[in-house]
Design a protein that fits this description.
The chain is of the alpha/beta class. The chain contains five helices and eight strands; from the N terminus they run E-H-E-E-E-E-H-E-H-E-H-E-H. It has a single domain, classed as Isochorismatase-like (Rossmann fold), CATH 3.40.50. Helix 3 runs parallel beside helix 4. It binds pyrazine-2-carboxylic acid (VGL) and zinc ion. Pyrazine-2-carboxylic acid binds next to helix 3.
């Protein structure tokens, strides 16, 4: 039972978006190819989906600039530009993503009092999204993860998957992901590797699937 988790492939994290990741849009064709030819039984997309007054936004903290550290609910918190506000174009999944192939959209970041980088639970680890139970119930034995941004939502989703789905093989697909900050990117890959998450490329994934029969 193979599952693909596409993390936050949204306008907001692509060039032109409010929290643009460099070259974020270039992963879309790779993600489309993985969905079409990767042999997955289940495809899930996560979606950062914040209320307009979300506490991770610098705009909610008097005098704070985006990309500085602040606090949220007593915890250190990176303060972000307003992004992925519910119902806005910025929050929409990229329209060039093959949306028809996505079985389930898992929204996250709805609670203004806590950020949620992971698709599985809030950063304070209190509330679960329900995705881990769903994947366990479906008997997922392999979970491949990619998307935006490698150093935040992809990393925390992969690390949570590792602990919350102990029986499954978890892999990170490097060329179908992009990071916000180069140092953060290296740290993310180290952290995932140490957690026994395999770092693979889309070529590896696609070479494992049997090519479909040529159409007559
Ligand atoms: C993300 C920062 C804030 C992400 C989401 O998708 O990586 N990063 N919200
Ligand atoms: Zn966010």
């Amino acid at each position: 039972m193979k599952c693909l988790l596409l993390v936050d492939i949204q306008n907001g994290f692509c060039p032109g978006g409010n929290l643009a990741v460099p070259d974020g849009d270039t992963i879309v064709p790779v993600a489309n190819r993985l969905m079409a030819e990767g042999g997955y039984d289940l495809i899930v997309a996560s979606q950062d989906w914040h209320p307009a007054d979300h506490g991770s936004f610098a705009s909610q903290h008097e005098g704070a600039a985006p990309f500085t550290m602040g606090t949220l609910n007593g915890q250190p918190q990176m303060l972000w530009p307003d992004h992925c506000v519910q119902g806005t174009e910025d929050a929409a999944l990229r329209s060039d993503l093959d949306l028809d192939r996505i079985d389930l959209i898992q929204q996250k970041g709805l609670d203004r009092r806590v950020d949620s980088y992971s698709a599985f639970r809030d950063n304070d680890r209190a509330a679960l999204t329900g995705l881990s139970e769903l994947l366990s119930a479906r008997g997922v034995t392999r979970l491949d993860i990619c998307g935006l941004a490698t150093d935040y939502c992809v990393k925390f989703s992969a690390l949570d998957a590792r602990t919350m789905l102990p029986e499954a093989q978890i892999r990170f697909i490097e060329d179908a992901s992009r990071g916000i900050d180069p140092a953060g990117l290296r740290n993310a890959i180290d952290a995932m590797t140490q957690a026994r998450i395999a770092v693979v490329t889309s070529h590896t994934v696609l070479s494992e699937t049997v090519p479909s029969e040529p159409r007559a």
